[in-house]
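in:
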């Protein structure tokens, strides 16, 4: 019996791999960047909202200096966990296509040198998350070099006029950090407030900064056009022109819909979430499973805390699938016959 290929080496993909390994099922993880690549792209000084115990996988304890670990502590934990468990992973292997063959799948990828490589699999698990596909504000000028869809640090923007678009944790956290690093910050949000649904640790700071006008806030507003020296907004009071050097559009991310569609996986057009069995995580494309954040589309309802729990369920489903097909010794630990 062949291997399972997991696409995505984030926490949820690693959870799937660890769970399959516990059952003696061969598994290979393909990751387009480094281990937990999306976390490496988080702001440099970020502290995760989740507590360390809610990030654990594979039965390996995660001890952090404080209850809520830093980005660097999280990266170190998953890096060491991968080595400790001996998870087979090919980093810097970007999956380009998955093709169904007579008995399974051919997974095609490009390695770090751009060379085409392929792997055979009996089952495929898509754990690609959403972080690589930023949602666009779809305004003229969004393609300008000054527009960014990811935020890492504020130091470089000291003295710059920076506009942040969004009203969730990432946008609020970026606006606060930019202000503290000496940027002239404007925050734009379609909703009437940014004080709902954000981390409690951000609430007091952003409220004070807006009330004291340290950060200009335009609620119920959106971007009409981005130019080199300014951004035109539609606000409650009409159109406003804001002088500007850089724009951070932090309005969320979405799954790689193209890959899902090529596998004939049904997609909910409103939420962009794939169709799958809520118990086994198998999609309506037999033999293809989804895990982690990708399962929720653009709804922001699945995070590492709960996405990591998909791994054991998927491993159990694959083991049962193989057992039913007579490919695993009955009564055993899941070792392939």
């Amino acid at each position: 019996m062949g291997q399972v290929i997991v696409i995505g080496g984030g926490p949820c993909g690693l959870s799937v791999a660890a769970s399959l390994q516990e059952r003696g099922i061969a598994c290979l993880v393909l990751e387009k960047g480094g281990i937990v690549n999306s976390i490496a792209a988080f702001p440099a000084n970020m502290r995760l909202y989740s507590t360390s115990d809610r990030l654990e996988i594979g039965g390996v304890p995660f001890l952090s200096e404080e209850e809520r670990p830093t980005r660097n502590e999280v990266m170190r934990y998953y890096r060491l966990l991968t080595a400790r468990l001996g998870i087979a992973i090919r980093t810097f292997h970007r999956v380009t296509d998955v093709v169904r063959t007579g008995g399974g799948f051919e997974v095609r990828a490009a390695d770090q040198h751009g060379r085409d490589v392929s792997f055979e699999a009996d089952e495929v698990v898509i754990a690609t998350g959403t972080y690589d596909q930023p949602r666009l504000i779809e305004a003229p000028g969004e393609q300008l070099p000054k527009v960014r869809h990811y935020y890492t640090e504020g130091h470089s923007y000291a003295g710059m006029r920076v506009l942040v678009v969004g009203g969730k944790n990432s946008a609020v956290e970026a606006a606060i950090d930019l202000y503290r690093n000496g940027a002239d910050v404007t925050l734009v949000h379609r909703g009437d407030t940014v004080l709902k649904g954000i981390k409690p640790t951000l609430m007091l700071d952003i409220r004070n900064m807006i009330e004291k006008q340290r950060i200009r806030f335009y609620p119920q507003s959106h971007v009409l056009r981005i130019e080199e020296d300014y951004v035109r907004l539609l606000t409650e009071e009409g159109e406003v022109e804001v002088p500007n050097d850089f724009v951070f559009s932090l309005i969320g991310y979405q799954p790689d819909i193209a890959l899902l569609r090529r596998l004939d996986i049904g997609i909910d057009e409103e939420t962009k979430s794939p169709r799958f069995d809520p118990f086994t995580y198998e999609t309506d494309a037999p033999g293809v499973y989804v895990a982690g954040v990708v399962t929720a589309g653009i709804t922001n309802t699945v995070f590492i805390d709960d996405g990591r729990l998909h791994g054991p369920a998927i491993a159990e489903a694959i083991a049962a699938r193989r057992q039913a097909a007579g490919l695993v010794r009955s009564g055993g630990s899941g070792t392939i016959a």
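note: The chain has two domains: 4-133+253-324, 147-249.
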